Amino acid sequence: MDETCRNNSIMRLTRRQLRQLIREAATSPEFSVIKTPSGNDGLRIYTPQDNATRDVIVISMPDGSAQAYYQSSGVSGGGYKGKWAPFEGWSTASRVLPGKSYGDFDPDENIQLFFRDATYGDTAIMAKTYWGTGTAIAPEGTIHADGAAWLNGWLRDNDPVFKDMTIADHAKQLGMLNRWLWRNKAIDRARSVFRVSTTGRGRRIQFGLDQTS
Asked: What's the rounded Cα separation, in Å, for the pair 101 and 22?
């Protein structure tokens, strides 16, 4: 009799715990795709600057933030063409000298070699989350790697709809996209790609979010 009561108590406790786990699973945040302002699953962005097309998808993360990912075109090398890498929106390619802005002359010799008389705003980069680490791909064990893995699975199970977009005006179009990412908590301004140079060369500034260096 006592043994039966004890077993029933264990069963009741186990069922309560199970129901609690089910409730928590139903309400806990998970990865999910954040629709673009036009209601699509992602963007297919063509940049004449480097003659490349990249798919971009933004997902919500379990910690309540969001993260933008781009599918590598392979143009910039690195050996990860086709893989998804996290990034923090778009910034100027060059570090902008203190007090200067997008319309000011860019003195970078490499920029001038390919884009004569270019201003800071004439060339842009995708501000990679893991800038300076030797790879754009998120390291294993990070939430960004988990997000990329989830995204690959989601893409296998779905037929995403992309909005085609050609970037003809960095300030206007990339500024609009950066503001959208910022509103969705998908830009971490503390990342190393945005840090001020210790040699006085300024910092990369973000279209739509910064005015001057």
From this structure: 53
Measured distance CA(140)–CA(4) in Å, rounded: 49
- The chain-wide mean pLDDT, for the chain, equals 89
Instruction: Give one DSSP letter per residue of 153-174, joined into a string.
Output: HHHHH----EEEEE-S-IIIII
**97-123 pLDDT tens trace:** 999 999 999 999 999 999 999 999 999
DSSP summary character for residue 121: G
Cα–Cα distance, 127 to 29 (Å, whole number): 26
Rounded to two decimals, the pTM is: 0.83
Sign of the torsion formed by the C-alpha atoms of 85, 90, 91 and 92:
positive
Q: Whole-angstrom Cα distance, residue 142 to residue 136?
A: 13
Buried b (16+ CB within 10 A) or exposed e, 140-159: eeeebeebbebbeebbeeee
Closest CA to 95 of 208, 2, 205, 206: 205
